[in-house]
Amino acid sequence: MTKINENYRKLPGSYLFTEIARRVTAYGQKNPDKRLIRLGIGDVTRPLAPAVISAMHAAVDEMGTMEGFRGYGPEQGYDFLRQAIAEYDYQARGAEIAPDEIFISDGAKSDCGNIGDIFGVDNVVAVCDPVYPVYVDTNAMAGRAGEYSEAVGRWSNLVYMPCTAENGFAPALPESKVDLIYLCFPNNPTGAVATREQLQAWVDYAESRGAVILFDSAYEAFISDPSIPHSIFEIEGARRCAIEFRSFSKTAGFTGNRCAYTVVPRDLERGGASLNTLWNRRQTTKFNGVPYVVQRGAQAVYSDAGRAQVRETIGFYQNNARVIRAGLAGAGLTVSGGENSPYVWAKTPHGMGSWAFFDLLLQQAGVVTTPGAGFGPSGEGYIRLSAFGGAEDTAEAVERIRAVL
Ligand code: MLT
């Protein structure tokens, strides 16, 4: 009899955003006349930048010619894109990252999960609480998380680093021994950022213990404070202890296009093996690359026009974040995030549970949010609001929420 991966049986319920979609669909079926405003999942709504569109059109035309046609591309991504990333995202910020340390992929979500392939199953994994559920669920699938307790909402073998209002949503360095440390800044879901000093402390910690930091900076484009690093590789020593995940999804509206990248420095070795070599081995075996047309579109994000257009769109979302923050704070809610992040993290009123407040806003305001408890026990008592909606919808959602409060 074929045996399944028993780890899947241990996973609680469904993936967070699937459960939210289920509740929203049920509400929509019961209330077909109500117009829902979605500030839940962090999915972009603005069209692609004109520079991206023309580059993709040109790439499609190339594919229609004998000379320009391309079959399988390099699994690691085309050099034109790896070079643009190295230059603009790293070297321009004083981070020494070479094109062959950059692996183009179809998403930071996939890479954050897939990276586990190159690490032993007995590594101890540390995650923030609340946390982007992909880090936790993929480690559970791999057998690294132990057993899940419904009562406490935690896995037995994971080390949780609480991010609470008390510690300014900044996780403390773990006291117990950990091997893999997932960090996400600007943070999903709290919207908090990490200062240079805080990141230096993480790098020093990881280096001194032989741990590896898995740094998700998918939201770096939303950093407005010039003192905040955009990459872990702006930090001295990170080349020896960190892997970074980045994405064009939130930066350039690519959630439907699928293009991201993972940086694995050549200096990063564990057990005498180069992690860059291992990841290359993994990718060449299991992945056939991102479509040429999409990679040409991503390259155009770095053109003069592309950079200006993308900045404008980010500015649009940043303005939504300001509207959400100001509106909810004005209505008496305690809010954080949203200043260097597209996510606003709001405390529920009167000590209400996250899911109860989520349901209340769905039923009475017709606004979809994300319940903080879905990101882990320390998210209980919070909801997350996404700034990726339209400007009018965002303003209306805030008004509707205020009316309910
Ligand atoms: C979120 O809402 O947390 C994000 O959309 C998740 C993702 O990027 O996969």
TrEMBL record:
Pfam families named in the record: Aminotran_1_2 (PF00155)
Coiled coil segments of this chain: none
A Gene Ontology molecular function term of the record: L,L-diaminopimelate aminotransferase activity
EC number(s) reported in the record: 2.6.1.83
Modified residues (N6-(pyridoxal phosphate)lysine): 250
Known catalytic reactions: (2S,6S)-2,6-diaminopimelate + 2-oxoglutarate = (S)-2,3,4,5-tetrahydrodipicolinate + L-glutamate + H2O + H(+)
InterPro entries assigned: Aminotransferase_I/II_large (IPR004839), DapL/ALD1 (IPR019942), PyrdxlP-dep_Trfase (IPR015424), PyrdxlP-dep_Trfase_major (IPR015421), PyrdxlP-dep_Trfase_small (IPR015422)
Pathway(s) it belongs to: Amino-acid biosynthesis; L-lysine biosynthesis via DAP pathway; LL-2,6-diaminopimelate from (S)-tetrahydrodipicolinate (aminotransferase route): step 1/1
Cofactor(s) listed in the protein's UniProt record: pyridoxal 5'-phosphate
Keyword Transferase appears in the UniProt entry: yes
Keyword Transferase assigned: yes
Quaternary structure, from the entry: Homodimer.
Name of this protein: LL-diaminopimelate aminotransferase
Gene: dapL
